[in-house]
User: Fold this.
Amino acid sequence: SSNVAHSNDDCAEASMSAAGSVDNGDACLSTAASMPPLKRIFDCEKLIRGVITNGPYWECKHCNNIYAGINATKALCHVLKIKGTQNVAACKEEIPLIYLQRYEDLYSWQHRGKEAKAEEIVARSNMTAARQDKNCCIFKATVQEFTQSPPPSNN
Assistant:
């Protein structure tokens, strides 16, 4: 089954403003594209964080479940229904496309960042290794030159 809801109720308001048609799935995409991208999962009005006497919590307004602690990674995995990660239940409700697209974009952006960082670390490591190899060769050449030179005369 799909994570995406395409009913008139889910996208009606978005569709009316974006394309003038309640029944237009493309309008949902258009509206999602016009919404600002999420920089953090809790920037979305459907994921609320707060503090009560028992401590901090976050709440999914899609399914109305409340979870102890505030963990952005768990919240994102919850709404994306990524099972087997972060020890958090997948959201039981269908996520409207206008929200799902933003969550998927945030997840992709976060993971692209990690891959880019990993590539940068590998590149730096390779540069460091090359520099060390070069320095080692220079040192060896210097030592070899020094050991093969005749000793200075004391005249």
About this structure: The radius of gyration is 28 Å. The longest strand covers residues 47-52. The beta strands are 4-5, 47-52, 55-60, 66-68, 95-96. Confidence is low (pLDDT under 50) at residues 1-25.
